[in-house]
Amino acid sequence: MTLPERPRSRPxxxxxxxxxGELDLNTLAPLEAEIETAIAQHCGVVLDASNITxxxxxxxxxxxxTHHRTDLRIAAPSPAVGRLFHIGGADTVxxxxxxxxxxxxx
Length: 106
Description:
By secondary structure, this protein is an alpha/beta fold. The protein has helices spanning 29-41, 57-69, 79-88, 100-105, and strands spanning 16-17, 21-23, 44-48, 52-55, 71-75, 95-97. A four-stranded parallel β-sheet has the order 1-3-5-6.
């Protein structure tokens, strides 16, 4: 006797974090806390980077550390973020997506 197959549910999409404005040593703590919470509760994070107007090396360090700890997807990086990733060489290792929808699709 074979049992009917149960439909498989799709895993829940990772949470989307959407910081805005400038992210540097003085303003990064709230995003870092959000990332820590997301990692503790989910198996991945989507960062909508479209509204980040400035980011420095402390932001880059946080992003690279997060990348090593979980499934990090970065959606729609702003020109400032894209430039930082390119200069730091991070664009070759991070999972970058042109849109939020693409990042959520994985």
